[in-house]
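agent: user wants the structure for LacI family DNA-binding transcriptional regulator from Saccharopolyspora gregorii. delegating to structure tool.
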Amino acid sequence: MPGGRPTLEDVAARAGVSRATASRAINDSPRVSPEARRQVDAAVRELGYVPNRAARTLVTRRTGAIALVLSEPEDKFFDDPFFAATVRIVSQHLSAGDSQLVLLMVHRPDDHARIARYLAGGHVDGALVLAPHRGDPLPAAVRDLPLPVVFGGRPWISERGLHLVDHDNVGGGRLATEHLLSLGRRAVVTVTGPRDEHAGLERLRGWREAVGDGEATAARSEPGDFTEAGGERAMAALLARVPELDAVFAANDLMAVGALRALRTAGRRVPADVAVVGFDDHPAVAPHADPPLTAIRQDPALRTVHMVALLHRLIAGDRVAPGREVLPVELVRRESA
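agent: tool returned. relaying tokens verbatim.
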């Protein structure tokens, strides 16, 4: 070893074990005694040994890499704080477990086939796929791969045999609307998410369940696109169509901020004239709105922890029954409602 990088043979010699035992200990094999594992771990630390990833892959058939797949345009990804927070949290949890994050984004329609080929090529041990849109061919292609996959949100394909982790979007939409009704508001409208995403449709369903069939008319809902500009446009349309409105549930925080801007332009005071509730409770958005935004809180860190833990179990070969895990949400009250 003098003058060069320590080798596996050096680790074995320092630990007083065979090369095979040292290799098994470094690659987390259960066929190693606790004492031998302690000796090898100590030798690795003392020598500063770094395993050869290529050689380790041959032994374990693992790459140490996890793909995060986003079927979102770049501008939406960088503008929406929810996606940025999710990527940051996934990266933190994977690095803590000595795994590498590979971010795969769809830029053009033909990227779906490129990503499916990459995932099928043995470059990663598993994949996390976030909230695809209606008509996206990627979920079906990923589902058919011999690769552990966990979906964040519901894909537009049969969920049979899939592993999903999601927040309670229906319950959140209902909770937001029930809060507005409890304040004595009677004309509660909603700025919905895109109609090609399950999250937006489920939050709309929660609003409908709370206001009742008689009030849940098409005139009292307007689709947005999960952006501030989309929320502002939708709010302006609702003000023109339902001038008596006195409350609005926006299906995410960014659209709620856009709605606040439209209400201010129209001379409506918040919350005196119109109460507003958003969805996400993102720390960079909701507390800093004008006025600070009451919102349904969904925790991207909680969802990420559950997704990563589930994927690691699947990669390890654990038998995990397919299904949809639904995580709770809560109402956070601030000045807007």
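agent: one observation worth passing along. The mean pLDDT is 86.
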